[in-house]
Specification:
CATH topology: OB fold (Dihydrolipoamide Acetyltransferase, E2P)
Strand content: over 45%
Strand order of the largest sheet: 3-2-1-4-5
Number of domains: 1
Helix content: under 10%
Order of helices and strands: EEEEE
Shape: globular
Largest sheet: 5 strands, antiparallel
Radius of gyration: 10 Å
Distance between the termini: 25 Å
Structural class: mainly beta
Oligomer: single chain
Length: 58
Amino acid sequence: MFEAINYTVISIDGDYAHLQKTENPTDDLKLVARALLPDSIREGSLLKYEMLQYTLIN
């Protein structure tokens, strides 16, 4: 039912991160609260969104 989506962290702006889909980089950036993301993310980190959770894959 839920398909996994991979994102790249483009930038971190205070309590929010701007994410870009890796499969379709022309889509708009997604703004996500840092509280929903793994603590160790950095700009350039790769994330997987699956089952309503973000996990670090790189």
